[in-house]
Specification:
Blueprint (H helix, E strand, L loop, with lengths): L2 E6 L3 H16 L3 E2 L8 E6 L4 H21 L4 E6 H6 L1 H6 L5 E3 L7 H9 L6 E3 L16 H4 L5 E5 L1 E2 L10 H5 L3 E2 L2 H13 L4 E5 L19 H10 L6 E5 L8 H9 L6 E3 L7 H7 L5 H14 L4 E8 L6 H14 L3 E6 L17 H24 L5 E9 L7 E5 L4 E4 L9 E9 L4 E4 L1
Parallel strand pairs: 1-2, 1-3, 3-4, 4-5, 5-6, 7-10, 10-11, 12-13, 13-14, 17-19
Antiparallel strand pairs: 8-9, 15-16, 15-18, 16-17, 18-19
Length: about 450
């Protein structure tokens, strides 16, 4: 059978989709190639959130057409995911050597279409149509044999799509409307993962805490999402539960309270604020105010003083004034985020923000981004210094990504810790003494 190489751009949901595609193909007899040069099939799982991600994927495919076909003239090349969904046939027209374009509701069809292409039953395939029930198909995971690693953490997709329609975001148009899986189906998948050695599960959704609002609804004062967390929490052998990405306005008191009574739900909340200006939040269609966001962080830290709070922020949204930007700087100083992902506004076609007046010049966006980055980095570094001298519980995930002679683990509040240790510790929850820090990483000893 042929070999396949899958390259992923973008978010954790794309990573999870790529893993499911790879597992699906392995089950059909395909092997995983170490790189695109040795693959019979090369698939790019694409992202459309920012223009830079689209351009990277387009440039990569352009080079693959020239290079891969030199080594293997019969190699199949394909686009998957969000850019495939938004552009469809346009990608084939732009790159006629591409064989496959599959949208976000068609990942489970990859094996079927590749079989047809390899057997010459089809010359090319473009499929970006909606498919009812597609959210329930993606549950395959790579086995130890498939990825040659001892994975102890796993992502589990609990839903697809988004109903929020933030004015800057293309995701509702590429992922479709919200569709959720059943609590029973998700719990069964998590249970199977734990049986295979997984210790930590991250529940994934575009807006994960809006899970099941319509299909399942509240019960005994608990939202469907909290009901799901409780169900997964009951799995014997599971050590930790995380989730991403939530929406601040979806944090009900039941979810805040869950951190205090469910010990497997770790003290970590990623809260994408996007801006510290109420005017900008309104233009972005975010559905909350700055004060409501600050109050939410206060509630979380009251329940769990050790809560690690991360965020996403967009710099340079259309119409952003210096005063608006100063509000964002002051919010970062007030909240003191443990981690912040900062994005320069990227104009996305077919989104309301793309046609808004007062689009900012790139030079100004770059300058504000650099100022905010310096502030966020300094806050993170100072907060990491506070951990030096303390003992912290970590789940040991594997060898350090930067130094294979060391191990790497993660605290409950989502700090990376690097330390000396034997490989036999991988998968264990242990205490480390924090001895030093860089601007991003803690270093310690068991």
């Amino acid at each position: 059978m042929p070999s396949v190489f899958v390259k992923t751009y973008g978010c954790q949901m794309n990573e999870r989709d790529s893993e499911a595609v790879a597992a699906q193909l392995i089950a059909k007899g395909y092997s995983l190639a170490p790189d695109e040069k040795q693959a019979d099939v090369v698939l790019l799982n694409t992202c459309s959130v920012r223009d830079s991600a689209e351009q990277k994927a387009l440039n990569k495919m352009g080079s693959l057409v020239g290079q891969t076909r030199k080594h293997n003239p019969d190699a199949l090349l394909g686009f998957l995911g969000c850019m495939a969904q938004s552009r469809g046939q346009e990608l084939m027209d732009q790159l006629p050597d591409v064989d496959l374009v599959l949208g976000t509701q068609k990942f489970h069809r990859v094996g079927q279409y590749l079989d047809d292409l390899l057997a010459r039953r089809r010359e090319q395939v473009v499929d970006i149509e909606e498919e009812k029930g597609s959210e329930s198909f993606i549950r395959e995971h790579l086995s130890e044999e498939g990825d040659k690693s001892r994975a102890v953490t796993a992502y589990v997709s609990i839903m697809q799509g988004c109903n929020q329609f933030c004015t800057f975001c293309i995701v509702p148009y590429t992922r479709g409307r919200e569709r959720c899986r059943s609590i029973e189906g998700i719990t069964d998948e998590c249970q199977e993962l734990v049986k295979n050695g997984i210790k930590e599960i991250t529940l994934l959704g575009q807006i994960v805490n809006s899970y099941g609002k319509r299909e399942i609804g509240p019960k005994d004062g608990k939202s469907a999402f909290v009901q799901l967390i409780e169900s997964v929490h009951q799995i014997d052998g599971l050590e930790r539960i995380r989730f991403t990405s939530p929406h601040p306005k979806g944090y009900g008191d039941d979810l805040v309270e869950a951190y205090g009574r469910l010990p497997k739900l770790v003290e970590n909340a990623h809260l994408p604020v996007q801006s510290g200006s109420d005017r900008m939040l309104n233009l972005m269609h975010r559905g909350y105010t700055r004060q409501r966001f600050v109050d939410l962080v206060g509630k979380l830290r009251a329940v769990c003083p050790e809560m690690g709070v991360g965020t996403d922020i967009i710099v340079g949204f259309p119409g952003e004034t210096e005063e608006d930007f100063e509000y964002t700087l002051s919010l970062c100083k007030e909240v003191e985020f443990d981690n912040a992902f900062l994005f320069k506004y990227s104009r996305r076609r077919d989104t309301p923000a793309a046609s808004m007046p007062d689009q900012l010049p790139e030079k100004l966006i770059e300058e504000r981004h650099a100022r905010l980055m310096e502030l966020a980095d300094n806050i993170r570094a100072r907060k990491l210094e506070d951990y030096v001298g303390r003992k912290m519980e970590i789940l040991i995930e594997g060898r350090s990504r930067r130094n294979a002679d060391r191990l790497e683990g993660r605290t409950r509040c989502n700090k990376i810790v690097v330390f000396e240790g034997s490989e036999r510790f991988i998968g264990q929850v242990m205490e480390v003494q924090i001895e030093s820090t860089t601007k991003t990483t803690l270093y310690g000893r068991l």
